[in-house]
TrEMBL record:
GO biological process: adenylate cyclase-activating G protein-coupled receptor signaling pathway
GO cellular component, one term: plasma membrane
Region (Disordered): 276-296
Gene source species: Chaetoceros tenuissimus
Domain G-protein coupled receptors family 1 profile: 65-387
Location of the protein in the cell: Membrane
Upper classification of the organism: Eukaryota, Sar, Stramenopiles, Ochrophyta, Bacillariophyta
Protein's name in the database: G-protein coupled receptors family 1 profile domain-containing protein
Amino acid sequence: MSIRGFASKAAAAENELITASKKFTISPAVVVTRITQTARKFPTRSSIKTLAIVQTVSSSISLIATITVICMIARSHTKLSSTFHRLLFGLCISDLFSSLGVTLSTIPIPSKYNQSIWWNAQGTIETCTTQGLFIFVGLRAEQFYNCSLCLYYLFVIKYNKKEDYIRKYVEPWLHSVPIFLSLLFGIIIAAKDSFNPGLTFCGVGADPPGCISNDALECTRGRDAQTMYKIFAAVPYVVLPFIIVFTMGLMYHAARQNERKMSGYGIHTLRLRADTNTDDNNNADGGESEKNLSESRISKRFKEIFSFRFSQSTPSQSRLSRSNKLNKQSKMIVQRALAYSLAYLFSYIVPLIISIMKWRGETVGYGITLVSRILFPLQGFFNFLVFIFPRILNARKRNANLSWSRAFVHALKSRGQRPRGTARNRLSQQN
């Protein structure tokens, strides 16, 4: 072969390589397009598998945390003798119901769907209905019990009700409403055959999935599922957070109003009264000393000491100390109420957004669904953090050399204080 022929073949091969490389080069626009197409294909079997595993991990963490809180309440000094502990116990039991159901993820879904996009479906219609009922009742009861906690705090802070009054007239409603409404809603949905396979667990929906929006599919179960979802699921998701925010606003306003009253004129007036009483006592002591010059020095010294002690514990000063203590307790209670409310809102803010999107008929994407599967099973864990954090601070306050990990262990072993006095005192002492 001549050199010229070899050069021409080499040039042709080089051109072919350049053309082939251009074919395999992917521009950023193509990458974005392919990602968008993948998102549009959601849900797929692999995406549901990922969501189910993430959901199981989150709910397992919440389950362990909730059981820990129950054990800590059971071994505390007050146990279930206080309204706060009984309400928190009801919240924990509700979380147990929902966490147990959510942990099973796709297992209770009927096995006939295992060959489709559902991963690890091994159940029946009965197991699916049972899982859906457990999750629904647990989640609704959690939401209602969060409202009950806020209302309890409101009666203590704003209306200054005593423990006996709350136990007799208020607490029965704080338990009966969450339990009754949650069971009632769940039974109605189950009677309408509206607990059916969802993405990663059985919930309110129709069977086969998508039959309501697809006229080509005939719904064999849950023909009223969309109505059931709007009334019994979407409405509580939207209304209950507003009730919690409203009660928190009332509590904050009441605490701030008391604080302004004390800082504006209440404390100043008490101090003036305390100073006036002290001067009057000193003047009276001087008069007594002039009238009783014949008394012994020991007797006069005794009267001076007695008079000094009396002037240091006047009713006005005792009132001042009591007002400061009540103000401090109110702040602690409002902070704790805010912490439990934020734990609830942080868990359910994404499901709230999803409920609004479904209400408006919008498509729920993979990203927001993944965030929802991470956060909403974790309310039990968030409640555990709120419950144990004050105990950790108390442990480090008693021993400044304790590390955070050792303080955490001490908090787990702590049985809490022995609360005494009014509901406000009990609530400020309990963790």
